[in-house]
Amino acid sequence: MRDRKKMLLIVLYTLLLLPAFLRVDSVSAGPYLDSAHGDILYGVDRNTIDGVTPFPDYSKGNCAHCHEQHASIEGQTTAPSDYLLFYDNYISQTDGVCFKCHDNTTTYAASAVVNRSYSFRAGGWTTDTLNDILEAFTDPPSISSHNLGNIQSFIATQSWGFTSNSNPCVACHNPHSAQGDPENSPNTAKTSASRGWPVSRPSLHSTDNLAWGLWGDGTGEKMSDYAGALIYQAPYRYNSTTTFEPDGSNTQNGSNLTDFPTFCLDCHSNSSIDFIDWYAATGDKHGKMAADATGSNYLDIDTPYTNANGGQYVLSCTDCHEPHGSPNTRMIRKEVNGSLLAGPVTTTNGRETGYLCRQCHTDDRDYSSSGSVNSWEYVHHCAPDYPYSQSSCSNCHGAGLARVVCGGGGGGGGGGQPIDCNNCHFHGSDDSWAPASLRTGRGTF
After folding, report:
1. Counting C-beta atoms within 10 Å of the first and last residue's C-beta, which end of the chain has fewer, N or C?
2. Is residue 63 part of a domain?
3. What is the pTM of this model?
4. At what angle are helices 260-268 and 148-157 packed, to 10 degrees?
5. Considering the domain boundaries, does residue 88 fall inside one?
């Protein structure tokens, strides 16, 4: 009887303690399982070993889809590259391990990986046909893109923990943390409910991928934080005057947008890689330099921007530029501030740059029905704070140009040519190109 009671007590204690032994804490998702590559529903999923299918039945997001730890899978010999990758880490502008899946084909990926342009994702221009990263870096259709070779060389010289073998794509994207933006819905534009954060700052790089965090997902990393005493105004979404980039919401102050100037200037504040002075009060007006303010209509800018706040605006790099590549020069977007550019910016003819400028600034057509699209007589010669007197036209225009929107039109000598915009308007520019007697000393970008 005593033994029976003892046995019952042992069983009772066992039942009481069993949950403690069987208890399994929920696994913390961590950055990789939260990333686009590591997601168990739509993460990385390779279908072939060196062109031979089927690929072993690894679950989506499994490390082995990118890394082959023993140079052999199911008896088939593979040839891992650096970091045990299944393909060469980086070969050229259009060849490397990232492009094996980010090419909108099923050559390696189990399903085509689609990555849309920023004009599509943030701008809402969903008829854009660019749909993968390889295409963005291929000329054509892109005629300008980040130079991956230069990036690889540059990051290897910084004290950021990269090496000469680092993949240049990894300069901006931590592959173990980068998220889809929008998340798992590449053929629709971003919404406030489908946001992800794809970039990590190069200067914060750590060889520990868990320590190298995303940029833009936290406090202090938004355009609203960057602007500070200045103002960030989100551009319109495509064909709308009521919704704004980047997610089609009513938010306009950049609290939903990554602080891209701080991110981009990790590299572009260096003189060896297209230096841009966005921070200084003597730098670019589209950055922290104040605009010239001499009258109530001094900026002549289009909505949603207003003259009342004109001297305080600061822009995000992505307001005008694609992050990977573009069919326009200088990676200029084809859709800006709610509409498509009226013409291409594809040649060395610098007057084409005006097609971008007029998305936010008043050209002659905006000012007067007698004016032409991408003509700029008004802002240079007859706006309230015009910088240049409309006389001695030949000093800049050769034989001079007929007045069209200033002084009632009909004046001038005619026969001269419009000026190349790039003579005076570019990052860090002023009007020193003009004859000495006409220079104002103004910053012109």
Report:
1. N
2. yes
3. 0.89
4. 80
5. yes
Q: Please count the other Cβ atoms lying within 10 Å of the Cβ belonging to residue 200.
A: 27
Which of 81, 113, 145 finishes a domain? 113
φ/ψ (deg, to 5) at 223: -60, -30
Q: Would you write out the chain's pLDDT as a tens digit for each of its 445 residues?
A: 445 544 444 334 443 333 333 333 333 456 899 999 999 999 999 987 666 666 677 889 999 899 887 777 766 767 677 888 988 999 999 999 999 999 999 999 999 999 999 999 999 999 999 999 999 999 999 999 999 999 999 999 999 999 999 999 999 999 999 999 998 889 999 999 999 999 999 999 998 888 999 999 999 999 999 988 899 999 999 999 999 999 999 999 999 999 999 999 999 998 778 899 998 888 899 999 888 765 555 678 899 998 888 778 999 999 999 999 999 999 999 999 999 999 999 977 788 999 999 999 999 999 988 889 999 999 999 888 888 888 777 888 877 677 888 876 554 445 567 888 999 999 999 999 988 988 988 889 9
**DSSP 8-state assignment for residue 212:** S
- Which element (helix H / strand E) includes 364? helix 364-367
- With 0-12 / 13-18 / 19 or more C-beta atoms within 10 angstroms meaning exposed / middle / buried, residue 333 is buried
Domain count within the chain:
2
Helical segments of 250-317, H only: 260-268
DSSP state letter for 396? H
Residue ending a domain, among 97, 113, 129, is: 113
Q: Is residue 106 part of a domain?
A: yes
Distance CA 136, CA 117 (A): 8
> How long, in residues, is the chain?
445
- Tell me if 289 is assigned to some domain: no
Strands (E), 197-262: none
Beta strands in 125-261 (DSSP E): 144-145
